[in-house]
């Protein structure tokens, strides 16, 4: 190619320049290019300011969501204690084992070994570990030793978190009273449910940074420490509770009964020393427990009490001046027709005074007493001692029983209720009602919680009537009474038996019974009131004096010694066997006819 040239200077020639080099751009296009470059730089600066300054918290949060985790720190649930500080329920450290299926690295053999260690079904565990999730529970509330064995397997993708499991040292002896929690440590029954808010506490949090495999690599800080739950102290004495449970269990098993319940009260302050039921369940191993075994029969179940109502009825008559301890009743020939209903005693007692009405448990004499009273007087006494009302105790499902308004009573209703039919009560209500005899005629509040504060009650009957009733109740546990089996060496006792037919279908089944006994000791200055009820004994004995009174005799002397109450009678080693033999061979039957 031949290039044009021009002379630059003398003797110098230059080739002609390219036409592209002589091309001049319009000034506007140049400024446009420069403006776009400046705008790009400004956009980058603005973006940097937006990300690094203005919205830095948002992007930091998004980053934290990928690498920072908030771990919940469980609070330790409060303890449930007896009156001496012994533990009835506490929380022990355990581990929750979980897996991240996305990072899990385990062959079938390892999974099978893991399942065996945790007592799980290997196929089911394999299925759950294949789920498309980042979190799967393997097993919760695993004890520390087992968790260490799992950790020793070295399976990648298996993780451990701290947790707590509830432990109940008294086991079945206090199962229905204390109650249970679920796997989330939430109260499900009993006092665990009642005091869920106080016992639960508040969980805390902890912020940590994890790597892409989920391993904690740094504690970020800024967490909230957990607040442990409060302790709850009961009035229960764990030793008396165990004694009561064992004696009640023996009575239910020996008499082949359906169930039984017993309540022991401190007569001086109304505090519950024991509340036992059988059948029961062990809250530490409740997987196979029957739902019925979890019922606190003493508080939640009601029944017709039979003759244990007679002292309450007679106390109303004494207080009203309708009868005195010297009042005489003619009961021959042993039966009485009342409003077309034939009411009978177990035998012809002839002419008896008021104390023998209690001692012999006379239905005929009690009916005559009730017919001298007004329905309102009778109803006022029953309501004054808490019958027909929900007990003021902190327990879920406590039953009120049945006591109809006196205006709706028929004349025969007043009579039958006088000896325990047509009214329903719980074992707890019976024990509470008898406090009027033990506590100078006052009804004081019953409670499940220990307190040293003085207790104020409501005067229901006079101290004189209370003393007179205790003297009559003492005859029941002596020779000729219906419960000599309730007599104990060293301590004076008194009480009342009751044996009631059970309503079935449209009538009372004369082959089904409920045996009761309510007693107190020492009778001169009672420290303990105890009520026992056994449902449907079927081993040949069914009277309250045969079935329930022996439970009283087993528990009370030991309980009084635990409470530091000295004997008020001389101890004669040969008395107890004699009384026991007499109880087995010749107790006066307190159940006959319409009600006893």
Question: How does this structure look, described?
Answer:
With 596 residues, this protein is an alpha+beta fold. The strands form seven sheets. Strands 4, 5, 6, 7 and 10 form a five-stranded mixed beta sheet that branches. Strand 19 and strand 20 form a beta hairpin. Helix 9 packs antiparallel against helix 20.
Number of helix segments? 21
Oligomer category: single chain
Overall radius of gyration: 40 Å
Largest sheet: 5 strands, mixed
What's the total count of β strands?
A: 21
Low-confidence parts, pLDDT < 50 over ≥5 residues? 1-8, 575-587, 591-596
Can you give the helix content as a percent range? 25-40%
What fraction strand? 15-25%
Choose one word for the global shape. elongated
End-to-end separation in angstroms reads 141 Å
Mean pLDDT: 87
Structural class of the helices, strands and pairings? alpha+beta
